[in-house]
Design a protein that fits this description.
Number of helices of chain B: 0
Strand content of chain A: over 45%
Largest sheet of chain A: 6 strands, mixed
Number of strands of chain B: 11
Structural class of chain B: mainly beta
Largest sheet of chain B: 7 strands, mixed
Order of helices and strands of chain A: EEEEEEEEEEE
Largest interface: A-B, 24 and 29 residues
Order of helices and strands of chain B: EEEEEEEEEEE
Helix content of chain A: under 10%
Number of strands of chain A: 11
Shape of chain B: globular
Oligomer: heterodimer
Distance between the termini of chain B: 33 Å
Radius of gyration of chain A: 13 Å
Shape of chain A: globular
Chain lengths: 113, 116
């Protein structure tokens, strides 16, 4: 049973457009929700993260929206650039349980120039 | 970049042979993890370690064992490789503590294993 479900699996967006990736989780004990970015041939790297005490977090062109009651969170990439073309993973963990991340299935984003 | 080295980076082996993947870190982080990455499944936790000789199973541990005899090294062993273990394996490290991103994991560049 997948505890973190991510959609869509792939996404094509024009340069300057908005990319939106959604995730839903089941375990209400999760208290840390990061997004990781992965380029081909590389390991994932932390992009942005949020905790459930806030509903939104913005870092540059990247924003996480968090809805605790719906058990959903999403990543918005504003003004998408070709360099944003990558695979994005949402994840969740219980921080007191040793930083063990449970990942979504991933979304491959292609930004067309 | 976090000092994480995985070896080998690529390996092709035959069904039934043993395989050991090595993760070496220079960051002195206490926590280490092995994940496998497969299309549509994201990354799934195989085993993790909270310190020397302190390891535990993740969600997909069947067919895998680990050892951690030194802080800097975490070994993943497939005792008898099967085709279903064809995957990309990632090592990750983290250090619990204060700060905004206390849950951050740092990943290595992966080891691609093909079992024929």
């Amino acid at each position: 049973q997948q505890q973190v479900k991510q959609s869509p699996q792939s996404l094509i967006v024009q340069k300057g457009g908005i990319s939106i990736i959604n995730c839903a989780y089941e375990n209400t004990a999760f208290d840390y929700f990061p997004w990781y970015q992965q380029f081909p041939g590389k390991g994932p790297a932390l992009l942005i993260a949020i905790r459930p005490d806030v509903s939104e977090k913005k870092e540059g062109r990247f924003t996480i929206s968090f809805n605790k009651s719906a058990k959903q969170f999403s990543l918005h990439i504003m003004d998408s650039q070709p360099g944003d073309s990558a695979t994005y993973f949402c994840a969740a963990s219980i921080e007191a349980a040793g930083n063990k991340l449970t990942f979504g299935g991933g979304t491959r984003v292609l930004v067309k120039p | 970049d976090a000092g994480i080295t995985q070896s080998p980076r690529h390996k092709v082996t035959e069904t039934g042979t043993p395989v050991t993947l090595r993760c070496h870190q220079t960051e002195n982080h206490r926590y280490m993890y092995w994940y496998r990455q497969d299309p549509g499944h994201g990354l799934r936790l195989i085993h993790y370690s909270y310190g020397v000789k302190d390891t535990d199973k993740g969600e997909v541990s069947d067919g895998y064992s680990v050892s951690r005899s030194k802080t800097e090294d975490f070994l993943l062993t497939l005792e008898s490789a099967t085709s279903s273990q064809t995957s990309v394996y990632f090592c990750a490290i983290s250090e619990p503590g204060q700060g905004a991103n206390t849950g951050e994991l740092f990943f290595g560049e992966g080891s691609r294993l093909t079992v024929l």
